[in-house]
Amino acid sequence: MRKKFICQVIILSGILTACAGNAGKSRGIDESKVSVESSITSVESKESREVTDLKVVKKNVTASQEETTVPESAKETFAAPETATETAKAKEESTKPVEETSKKEENSKKEENFKKGADSNQVDSNQTKEIGLDSGWEYASFSKINSGKAVLYKAGQNGNGITIAVNAGHGTKGGSSQKTLCHPDGSAKVTSGTTKAGATTAIAVSEGMTFSDGTPESTATFEMAKVLKDELLSRGYNVLMIRDGNDVQLDNIARTVIANNNSSAHIALHWDSTSSNKGAFYMGVPDVASYKSMEPVASNWKKHEALGKSLINGLSQNGTKIFSKGRMEMDLTQTSYSTIPSIDIELGDKTSDHGKDTLRILSKGIADGIDSYFGR
Ligand SMILES: [Zn+2]
């Protein structure tokens, strides 16, 4: 019985093996066909999914870019960070609570899509955040006027992770009735400008000049800042608007310290007080040993000079008239407290054109200079 059973099993398995062999041969082709077809289907569906995702992301980028032109509502969604920790925390949060629930949902959808679409990019959408002076930051205690807030605009999907502090010169009511130390070590000013050489204190924020057409310098610098902000955002930079309105209650030290702690480079926009349409130049670090050996100038003056040269090259290449060699030495409060590459750029003087078209050309020149400085 056992023998017979074994024989039957052997015969049966022989038949099955033979059948399986044939079936395998003919099925082999079908299977490969099926597998090719199914992978085509899966590629197709993946592609169409990616296209859909891309569309969603693109739509949101456009939507958020539009939002930058209406900063008032967006600004309200951010509480001003009071401490460094809070600032860092606020930085991490790319979506903040807003007044309306629908907007909240829209924002969370937006973030989800950005995460899906471009993990590698610094994608925070073009949101804004107010940043005030933190009393714990180095040199903050030298400031006298610091109740105002700078506003950080984040680049969209094309973000490169570099933040530029755009400082619209002047525009601080009451700024000329306060005085601050020229240098953090209390030493005297080495060149004469708005404040004479030898002085140890300077006006906290001067009022600036008035153009020959009656425009206050602070109005032109703010217009310039807004045009430059848009140009830089379009190139992927985050922009820290030190003054994001006609007035900001931040003196030159507060502006500098905020830039030091929240950006990669600080560019202050000015026009000079002469009336010869002499062209653009940057305020170079005075070649005075005692000044160049004082911190934080000692550790940073070479960076200031390199940035200044890049900006002048960019402006020149875009057709802007340059004064002399594009440089004038000046002992500035800004330079004296800067711990990042930092420049005061004078874009012309009282008689220079400051219409929209000129501002656009200037913004391209400055942005080209920034690109070149950061090797982009
Ligand atoms: Zn000025």
Automatic annotation (TrEMBL):
Q: Where is this region: Disordered?
A: 61-129
Instruction: Name the Pfam families for this protein.
Output: Amidase_3
For bias type Low complexity, the affected ranges are 76-87
Q: Which GO cellular component terms are attached?
A: outer membrane-bounded periplasmic space
Instruction: Could you list this entry's UniProt keywords, alphabetically sorted.
Output: Hydrolase, Signal
The GO annotation for biological process reads: peptidoglycan catabolic process
The cross-references to InterPro entries, in alphabetical order and at most eight, read: MurNAc-LAA_cat, N-acetylmuramoyl_amidase_3
Enzyme Commission no = 3.5.1.28
| Gene3D superfamilies assigned to the protein according to its UniProt record, in alphabetical order | Zn-dependent exopeptidases
Q: Where is the composition biased (Polar residues)?
A: 61-71, 119-129
**Record-annotated MurNAc-LAA domain positions:** 164-352
Q: Give one GO term, molecular function aspect.
A: N-acetylmuramoyl-L-alanine amidase activity
Cleaved signal peptide residues:
1-20
- Annotated Basic and acidic residues bias: 88-118
Report the protein name in the record.
Answer: N-acetylmuramoyl-L-alanine amidase
| Source organism | Lachnoanaerobaculum saburreum F0468
